Each structure stands twice: as structure tokens, then as C-alpha cells.
Task: inverse folding
């Protein structure tokens, strides 16, 4: 583990900045100036945080929320709307 911060609920961190902003900067302080890359989920991926980290020589990569309501009709696997292309039944049948 590189660093840790005990979260004690509301009031345990400054309220003048979003909590995601505060915790990201607080927990990455030891790698500021190292030209490292930080990978985190979409809750921590905020433009102001990314800009501030970049000034501190840390780049930020975050994930998108990939929740979907579209599933494969045959196997029921979830389908990402960004990475699928709709096809009509006739085209699917011809492709087989």
C-alpha cells in the first residue's frame, strides 16, 4: 500500500472541495512530481482533479460508467452501446 486515509464520515475532510477531489490529491501526494499515471474509477475522474494532477506531473486515466440496459438476445451478456452496431434481423441471418 502506498498511502491510506481514514474516512470518519462528514466533517473528516474539508468541505470547500468535492470529496473525490480532496481524497485523490491527498492519497496521491507521495507520487506528485514522478510522472506516473493514476488509474481510477469514474467517481474520481474529474476534470479539475486531472488538471491539478497534471500540474503535479501525474496523469489521470479514469473509467466510464458502463451500465447498460441492452443484452444479447441469445446469451444475455450485457452489450455496451458504445461498442455495438445495430443490425436488422435480415442482415444477421445473411451473415451466418
Result:
Amino acid at each position: 500500500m502506498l498511502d491510506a486515509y481514514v474516512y470518519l464520515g462528514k466533517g473528516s475532510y474539508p468541505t470547500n472541495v468535492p470529496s473525490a477531489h480532496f481524497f485523490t490529491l491527498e492519497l496521491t501526494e507521495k507520487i506528485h512530481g514522478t510522472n506516473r499515471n493514476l488509474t481510477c474509477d469514474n467517481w474520481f475522474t474529474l476534470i479539475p482533479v486531472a488538471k491539478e494532477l497534471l500540474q503535479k506531473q501525474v496523469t489521470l486515466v479514469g473509467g466510464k460508467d458502463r451500465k447498460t440496459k441492452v443484452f444479447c438476445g441469445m446469451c444475455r451478456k450485457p452489450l455496451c452501446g458504445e461498442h455495438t452496431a445495430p443490425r436488422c434481423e435480415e442482415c444477421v441471418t445473411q451473415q451466418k
